[in-house]
Specification:
Length: about 280
């Protein structure tokens, strides 16, 4: 059912020789597809990097075996969900021990997967007095742990429609907090989809990129509002985005393709995406 689509889809991402596109293997593959099979498709198409939000579905031994069979670099993972499936714990009340346990688990997976970046999720607990202080204290503790392991931490603005009540739901707030954290191992995860969903135009997104270039170490893309392939019509002009990235030499860090195809079995849709990314 998925054969042609998946092969074509990853062939697209392997083509980019200047921009470093990496597929999100959590979103771009069917949920019932085995880890080793996902990695096999990546490597068979010449693709050298991936990202995945939650690698914890599989044990470290499963990852190690799959990566041994199909070597590929893992560029980014998230901290694990909370025990009640909270989307992170960095800004949650009286949960510092659980937060730090999640950081340690993330570090464990990063080391096993040889991944150098960990997205630290903030959570969506309702506002409480001192929440900003709790977040900053947690992030500084996380920074100390990550720095000792040579791992980069990332924080991301996430739109209200994606995770209602997420603590970092405003880009200015996120960047202000990043300044207060003041760590040389904590950076900004620049998600074009979320910025668009928060009302920023393509031009405003590029301005944000330019103004904060030194803070950005990973980019993610999808076409709003349905978070589908970036070659589809939508609010974001990805031709302008990618040409801008090329013009400003965003060629060392990665661009995560964090979207679902609007139709898994549509070969022409995969070819359209292939033709689009060939240009970059």
């Amino acid at each position: 059912e998925y054969g042609y689509f998946i092969q074509s889809n990853l062939r697209i991402m392997a083509i980019g020789q200047m921009l470093k596109f990496v597929p999100n293997i959590g979103t771009m593959f069917p949920s019932d597809m085995a880890l080793a099979d996902r990695l096999e498709v990546c490597t068979s198409q010449g693709f050298s990097g991936i990202e995945i939000a939650f690698p914890y579905t599989w044990s470290i031994s499963e990852w190690e075996e799959s990566l041994r069979l199909h070597p590929v670099s893992v560029t980014l993972i998230n901290t694990p969900l909370g025990e009640n499936r909270e989307p992170g714990l960095a800004a949650c009340h009286n949960k510092q021990d659980r937060f730090l346990a999640g950081i340690r688990k993330g570090v464990e997976y990063c080391k096993a997967l040889r991944c150098s970046q960990l997205h630290i999720m903030a959570g969506n607990e309702p506002h409480f007095d001192g929440q900003r202080k709790v977040f900053l204290e947690n992030m500084k503790k996380a920074s100390e742990l990550l720095k000792g392991e040579g791992i980069r931490g990332l924080i991301e603005t996430i739109s209200e429609g994606t995770i209602p009540g997420y603590y970092l739901n405003d880009v200015k707030k996120t960047l202000d907090l990043l300044e207060e954290i003041d760590s040389d191992c904590i950076f900004f995860q620049f998600d074009v989809f979320h910025l668009s969903m928060l009302g920023h135009s393509t031009e405003q997104i590029l301005e944000l990129f330019d103004c904060n270039r030194s803070k950005i170490k990973h980019v993610q893309v999808a076409q709003p509002p349905h978070r589908i392939e970036i070659s589809s019509p939508g609010d974001i002009d990805y031709t302008a985005i990618f040409n801008h990235f090329l013009a400003h030499a965003y060629t060392d860090d990665h661009i995560g393709l964090e979207f679902k195809m609007s139709s898994y079995g549509d070969a022409s849709l995969a070819d359209d995406l292939l033709d689009f990314l060939k240009r970059f």
